[in-house]
Amino acid sequence: MRQSEPSKQPLEIELYESRKKVHPRNVKGYYQTLRKISLYVLLGIYYLLPWLNFEGHQAILFDLPARKFTIFSIVFWPQDFIYLSWLLIIAAFTLFFVTALAGRVWCGFACPQTVWTELFVRIEQIIEGSRNKRIKLDKAPWNWAKIKTRGLKIFLWLILALWTGFTFVGFFSPIRELFEHVLSASLGPWETFWILFYALATYGNAGFLREQVCMHMCPYARFQSAMFDKDTLIISYDVARGEPRAAGKKRRAEIENVGDCIECQACVHVCPTGIDIRDGLQYECIACAACVDACDEVMIKVGKEPGLIKYTTEHQVDGKQTKIFRPRILVYLLALSIMVGLFAMTILSRKDFAVDILRDRNSFYRMIDAKTIENVYKIKIMNKSNVSQEYDISASGFGADLIVFIDEKNKNRTLDAGEILNLPVKVRTQKDAVKKRIQHIEFEIKVLGQNQDSITEKSIYFGPKK
Fold first, then answer.
1. Do 236 and 308 touch, CB atoms closer than 8 A?
2. Cβ proximity of 357 and 379 under 8 Å
3. For 363-381, what is each residue's pLDDT tens digit?
4. One CATH from 2.60.40.10, 3.40.50.12160, 2.40.50.140, 3.55.40.20 for 353-462
5. pLDDT digit string (tens) for 212-254?
6. What is the location of CATH 2.60.40.10 in the chain?
7. I need a labelling partner for 95 at 20 to 30 A (CA). Which of 81, 114, 138, 399 fits?
8. How far apart are CA 237 and CA 255, in angstroms?
9. 206: left (phi > 0), else alpha (psi -120 to 50), else beta?
10. Residues 434, 461 contacting (CB under 8 angstroms)
11. pTM: predicted TM-score of the whole model, two decimal places
């Protein structure tokens, strides 16, 4: 009797490797001390800055409903959007300059993703213990001890994420009022949405995704190589010194001319992205230098010279001299210096009010009587300061006595902070004083009181044909 052939099972092919959770080991050293200082400074700025008051108001407040952005004593309005664009360009050039000079130090020491991930990991280390304990806890079945440990960690993560979201909204809504609304459970719908949204983003990026943001989502990791050259600082493994590598005294004794690397895997265990720096420079490396500190610690213990893994350049690795001041660096530095200088000069010379003058298009001039003519203008004044201001308007030009007339209903020229005034103005002079068809005049708008700032705007004055 013929036996039936066994049924063929469908072949499953995994197109994507499942994520292997990275559990970085805690390490101490020079660079990790710098990272810790950077962590405390940046988080301190973020969490404390909204609570800082300056001259009776919140020092940093981006009031979107009022379209008013306060940075200490300077108030920006939508008309000042050019300053934001300018600042973003400066930030971009600064990033290019730092990257070309020092590699990905931004990623390793100052990037928000790195800073908050480091904070979340530190909480995890406090609650769950060392790297080995965390790995063991991951593999352990769910029981009351695991639920209690993980529950406490998640609870602290949620508190931190919510406080981060609350602080974020505090930059856009007065934070003291916002805190009172939270305590009284009277938050508005938009405030509630953005607190929860930013808390979810913080928890998701720093608590769940972690290194995946750097490896798969961040565009900077993809185009950073375009700014690298052989004189850019990178973290590199000294192949000539470390190879051939071997673990254990017996195994190392069997290999001739064995390298300094003892295969302890410390550089891999401390890496927040889980890579092996000994495989060469990789885009996943965020230049946090944890592997440098871990390797130096091991080298000192085994009686070897530190620096098997270190900050260096390709030229140094090849035995050549590194050039700091090279054309790319000089171009970035020159462009950055010019932009920062011009930006600082513009901010320092910025007036607390803005003026725009338009002539009346309905007529060139008007005859008041046989000897007097007038031109009509519309002057637009915007108070860009934080206090009320009163303005005086005068006109001069072509050697004539120009008299500015303002209607009685528009006599009050005091504007509140952020207020805009459209003011019809008539300028009269003697007919005989107008020697040409078109003359040039100047309006001077001056702030009354202690602040004597003034703005001069040019316009034209029409007269009769000669």
1. no
2. yes
3. 888 888 888 899 999 989 8
4. 2.60.40.10
5. 998 888 888 788 778 888 899 999 999 999 989 888 887 778 8
6. 353-462
7. 81
8. 20
9. alpha
10. yes
11. 0.83
